[in-house]
Amino acid sequence: MRFNDAIFGALLLVLGAAVLMVVQGYPKIPGQQVGPALFPGLIAAALCVCGALLVLRGWRERAAAPWAQAGEWVRSPRHLGAFIIVIGSVVFYILAADKLGFLIASTVVLTAVMLALRVRPGRAVLIAVIATLMIHFAFYKLLRVPLPWGMLAPYAW
Question: Which residues in the chain land under pLDDT 70?
């Protein structure tokens, strides 16, 4: 699927503006010139600038390029199925991660995506388990990001 740049530019503008509005409510740190809103605000401002440039470019090219054009993969049942599985996996993770926990939900998601991409089942499960453990170690232990334990909370380390 190919979209005119103006469409994605408008989405980036909306996203950047939303982030800029949210970071305005971040607390100020006494005695500091730099607060927690600085870096998200800079990134949001950059998103707005890039979005505006894409809107301008897309608007100029609107006569030569259609607003949206379906790609060949849309007609392929295999590719369409893989696309739906990827989107469904994201929705599944959002809905199930707190209840199941990161380790289980991530393993299920990675296995489903690899099966959709025609990885052999045994290999898909093995890679999903190893990748999930590596991601968990990197984020939970090294970066100290609190990942949900869900059903495995009694066994949390």
Answer: 1
